[in-house]
Amino acid sequence: MAALISLAFFDNPVWNNLALILGELLLVFIAFWLIFSILMGVLIVVSIHKKQMYFPRLLRPFFTIMEGTVKVVCLILGVDGSQLMEFLIKIDNQMNLKNFSRIPVEQRVVFFPQCLRARDCPARLTPDGLKCVSCGKCTLGRVVPALNEAGYKTFIIPGSTFIKRMIKKYKPMGMIGVGCMMEVKEGLEMGRKISMTTIGVVTQSDGCVETTMDFEQLMEVASLGLSEPIRMKPDPRDK
Fold it and tell me: Does pTM surpass 0.70?
């Protein structure tokens, strides 16, 4: 009896019409999703090749929602994962520049990965990370003091867990995160989750020891909103 009632329910014209409408709506949604993903992929590819960002405030939120499909479209169109990640980092940075420039320098922090220091770095690990002693063996010894004098809090961290710990401890409003592309991507994502304005600076080389980066680019970013640009300390080897 129950089976007959169930069959009768699904044989009902009202249910059949409803199922048909739902099916058509699903097909329309899938078609829209695919078309919009393709348009986004094309827009990203054009932006990368022309080195100009088109509609970044539209691209970023929709990419977050449609990430998987857009990645496939970009791959088909000849853009690999690293190119796409670099492009997304640039979008996030561009969207955050204005807000970052408005944050008082005393409310800003910079996180450096420990791989930037010299192989024989004499810095000691403290509860706030590695403390630079400006020994002259790497460029951090010229950059960290300059940033500290400008008002920044700087941290040379041995791991990503330090970032969350220092943010919880000091409660900054803005953060500059330095690292490889994946580390910067994760830092920007964390900044979005906790509603903190974040700028990412990608190192020029990957690895665990003596990696390199464009420190002039970092100082340019750190100087946003300040009346005077921050300059690295002179290299003692030039004397």
Answer: yes
Query: Position of tokens 């010229």?
Result: 142
* Mean pLDDT taken over the chain: 84
Q: CB neighbours of 230 closer than 8 A, spacing ≥ 6?
A: 146, 147, 150, 219, 222, 223
What domains does the chain contain, in order, with CATH numbers?
2-79 (no CATH), 98-238 (3.40.50)
- The DSSP secondary-structure symbol of 133 reads -
Return the structure tokens found at 147.
């940033």
Distances from the Cα of 14 to the Cαs of 11, 18, 22, in angstroms? 9, 6, 12
The DSSP annotation for 150-162 comes to: HT-EEEEESSTHH
119: tokens are 């192989």
Handedness of CA 31, 36, 39, 44 (dihedral sign): negative
Nearest CA to 147 among 105, 98, 113, 115? 105
Q: Using one digit for the tens of pLDDT, what is the confidence trace for 46-103?
A: 777 777 776 777 777 777 777 777 777 778 878 787 888 888 898 889 889 999 999 9
**C-alpha dihedral, 69 to 72 to 73 to 79, nearest 10°:** 140
13-52 CB burial, b ≥16 within 10 A, e <16: eeeeeeeeeeeeeeeeeeeeeeeebbebbebbbebbeeee
Q: Are strands 197-202 and 174-179 parallel, antiparallel or unpaired?
A: parallel
* DSSP-H helix ranges across the chain: 2-10, 13-50, 56-65, 67-76, 81-101, 140-150, 161-170, 181-193, 215-222
